Automatic annotation (TrEMBL):
Coiled coil: none annotated. InterPro entries: ACX-like_C, Hydant_A_N, Hydantoinase_A, Oxoprolinase-like. GO terms for cellular component: cytosol. GO terms for molecular function: 5-oxoprolinase (ATP-hydrolyzing) activity. Signal peptide: none annotated. This is Hydantoinase/oxoprolinase.
């Protein structure tokens, strides 16, 4: 590392520390200020959150629906009186005298950050920014150093649940993760690197770890594979690519059409609806680490959706796994070299795998161990093939229009099986399939993406003045977003001339 570090040109970090902090609910103690009367809306959440992440069968049963604990419990939520309507008009002025007591109570409760999210603040931010300023002044007078996050400063978009959740994630998980990234960057500097690390962002670019909106890096690993496929496609002259990534836990599919991928503006992560631009990917819980069981009633093989993940399976004596996995079937069939797994760092035990497959699968089904293991592989590849085909045809395309890129740790093992009969134009498996997502992170541009919701009234028969006013709204919004991007790049040593701007509209709705 000491020899290589001074020669490196750049470095990109991609990991799950922030997402793990969110999923395990081990983030900051955050206080929340909302409209009076709306104190329960974050705790209640959107109805869809009650079954996000469930299998289809579980979604059919109401008794399986549950709400996860809110990131901010009710006792750390305060309301202040104000109301701005959907058009941005002030209906009820802000009762400023209610803000300071609310902030003091939260600080005395021991919160480590305060989030402010008021209704329709994306249309008119005046009240939310005033609450922010009062909160900061109150905290200063109390002699505390607590960050304040106003949703309009981070995610000024429609849908209050999405906007509030995302701003809370910024305070709860993203900002604390910044300290981890600072330590990583410092260690690399000590090793001789001459750059600051970038972080893979969910929209397909990389951003600085000092970026204002760090929650945009919540999901980064799988995104790298799609970016890498796009990069290779550009250099190999392929514009339509079906990306398929099979790892130990999941099978991820994304489409690149006409040389670009689709962005979701309202994704869900960790059973929360969010306002984060995310490369559109579809996933199922099927991978090489998926558990294999026999249904006691139908005597059929059931795969997953739970997985052994990095523990591999029963074949790994140090994994602590008792239920057989797809990888155990690989070992039984000789598809995995037990002495060279992870370059020999993890030694697998074929005998353990054989005995476990025999007891848990072959004997209950009345099959030989080899036939039972082969049946698991066939079933997995059939599920992957059906899912891949449905993801392509469901979007109005045909597999014959695409080249399939297959990567991930399980890509080389299963590609031939799950693409069989689909009629792809071609199928490519990179030689470094297991590390392809890391390659994609390195190929990603240094890129910031900011969003804003606008409502523009252009009536039928609009006058030139009304049209000019509508154009002015667009121009002011563009200038504001451009200033935010410029600020981020300048903060990291770039000049205005180094920046290339690209305007796009993620979604639009017309009324009339």
């Amino acid at each position: 590392m000491e020899e290589a570090s001074p020669q490196l040109l750049t470095g990109v970090y991609s990991g799950t520390a922030m997402l793990n902090r969110l999923v395990s609910r081990k983030g900051r103690k955050v206080g929340l200020i909302v409209n009076k009367g709306m104190e329960d809306f974050h705790r209640m959440g959107r109805a869809v959150q009650s079954y996000l992440g469930y299998s289809y069968s579980d979604r059919l049963h109401l008794n399986t629906h549950k709400y996860d604990p809110p990131l901010v419990p009710r006792e750390w939520t305060r309301g202040v009186t104000e109301r701005i309507d959907m058009f941005g008009n002030v209906v009820i002025p802000l009762y400023e005298h209610e803000v300071e007591p609310a902030v003091r109570e939260l600080v005395e409760e021991g919160v480590e950050a305060i989030v402010i999210s008021l209704l329709h603040s994306y249309k008119n931010p005046v009240h939310e920014r005033r609450v922010r300023d009062i909160a900061r002044e109150t905290i200063r007078k109390m002699g505390k150093d607590i960050p304040v996050f106003a949703s309009v400063d981070y995610y000024p978009v429609r849908k209050e649940s999405h906007r509030t959740n995302t701003t809370i994630v910024e305070a709860y998980a993203a900002d604390p993760s910044r300290h981890t990234l600072e330590k990583v960057n410092q260690r690399l500097r000590e090793k001789g690197t001459k750059f600051d690390i970038r972080v893979m962002a969910s929209h397909g670019g990389t951003i600085s770890f000092r970026a204002n909106e760090l929650a945009r890096t919540l999901v980064s690993g799988p995104i790298g594979g799609v970016v890498g496929a796009k990069y290779l496609g550009e250099h190999l002259g392929v514009s339509n690519i079906a990306c398929s990534d099979i790892g130990g836990t999941s099978f991820d599919v994304a489409l690149i059409s006409q040389g670009d991928f689709t962005i979701k503006t309202d994704p869900d992560m960790a059973r929360l609806v969010l306002s984060l631009p995310l490369v559109s990917m579809d996933s199922i819980g099927a991978g090489t680490g998926s558990f294999v069981r026999v249904d006691p009633y139908t005597k059929s093989i059931v795969l997953g959706p739970d997985s052994a993940g990095y523990r591999v399976g029963v074949c790994n004596p140090d994994g602590g796994v008792d239920t057989i996995t797809v990888s155990d079937c690989h070992v039984v069939l000789g598809l995995i070299n037990p002495d060279n797994f992870l370059g020999g760092q993890v030694k697998l035990d074929p005998k353990r795998a054989y005995e476990a497959v025999k007891a848990q699968l072959a004997e209950p089904l009345g099959l030989s161990v080899e036939d039972a293991a082969f049946g698991v592989i066939q079933l997995l590849e059939s599920q992957l093939r059906n899912y891949l085909e449905s993801m392509i045809t469901g979007k109005g395309y045909s597999p014959t229009q695409f080249v399939c890129f297959s990567y991930g740790g399980g890509g080389p093992l299963h590609t031939a099986g799950y693409v069989k009969g689909l009629g792809f134009e071609d199928v490519w498996v990179p030689a470094w399939a297991a590390g392809f997502s890391a390659f994609g992170c390195g190929a990603a541009d240094y890129e910031y993406r900011y969003d804003m919701t606008l409502d523009i009234n252009v009536p039928d028969g609009a006058t030139e003045g009304q049209k000019a006013e509508a154009a002015g709204v667009l121009q002011r919004a563009w200038s504001e977003l451009q200033d935010k991007v410029t600020e981020e790049f300048v903060k990291n040593g770039f000049s205005y001339d180094d920046i290339r701007f690209r305007l796009s509209h993620g979604s639009s709705k017309n009324l009339g």
